Amino acid sequence: MFRITLSLGGTVVRKYPFEKDSVTIGRDADCDISIDNVAVSRNHASITFTEGEYVLEDLQSGNGTFVNGEKVVTHVLQPGDAFVIGKYSLLFETVSDVESVVRESARKAGGDDATFRLDRKELEKLIGKAAKGEAKSSLIPEGGGNPVPLNRPWHFAGSSSDATIPASGPLVMPRIALFLKEEASYRLVRVGGKFGKVTVNQQDVDSRVLRVGDVIDICGKRYQFAQE
């Protein structure tokens, strides 16, 4: 299962969750991701799951498909990759069982983002999925200051006095976000309400695996994710 987040000028237009092995992108209304823009070909690109990999393919489009500024014909997507079609950015993310917990909690809340939060049992379920072993990651505050070490299987951000990453603001919950250790990195998961900003590289986050250099904003405080 994977998700594509479509953005224009840094603003999220729509999030597309998929549970199938082949997805089409283009201007045609029959495409799985339909983008009504003249710079986008009718059948512009596709994503196909094959031999354990998600492969992005440009379908001989008029204006091309770009990954990291490079025009591509095919490209093996990694979680967190963003590619550009026309003026639109499309972020590729795989959906883990961690995110399944988050989605189910949001469903129980009736889709009300303002009041959504995970209860204790759901948090315990997430924490139980944390990878074991030594962690050597940190958050580097923007503008200087001491790095915040991420050296445990999980860390919370929020208004609580025991939060590793403090966050403040009107109606910000004691636990607004969770940094959950995975095998090679940390996953940032939004766990409490929608009051207060939680973004990665200026995009709203529900759940996302962090990559070195990612810029994280938690309630107005910005950090850069680093690993040894």
Helix-strand category: mainly beta
Number of helices: 2
Strand residues, percent: 35-45%
Q: And the CATH topology of the largest domain?
A: Tumour Suppressor Smad4
Mean pLDDT: 82
Number of strands: 22
The radius of gyration is 18 Å
Q: Give the % helix.
A: under 10%
How many domains comprise the coordinates?
2
Query: How far is the N terminus from the C terminus?
Result: 30 Å
> Strands of the largest sheet, in order across it?
2-1-11-10-7-8
Q: Which CATH-level-2 architecture of the largest domain? A: Sandwich
Low-confidence stretches: 105-116
Reported for the largest beta sheet, the result is:
6 strands, antiparallel
For the record, what CATH class of the largest domain applies?
A: Mainly Beta
Write the H/E string, N to C.
Answer: EEEEEEEEEEEHHEEEEEEEEEEE
Structure in words:
By secondary structure, this protein is mainly beta. It has two domains: 2-94, Sandwich (Tumour Suppressor Smad4), CATH 2.60.200.20; 137-227, Tumour Suppressor Smad4 (Sandwich), CATH 2.60.200.20. It contains two helices and 22 strands. The chain is elongated and about 55 Å long. The two termini are 30 Å apart. Mean pLDDT is 82; it is low at 105-116.
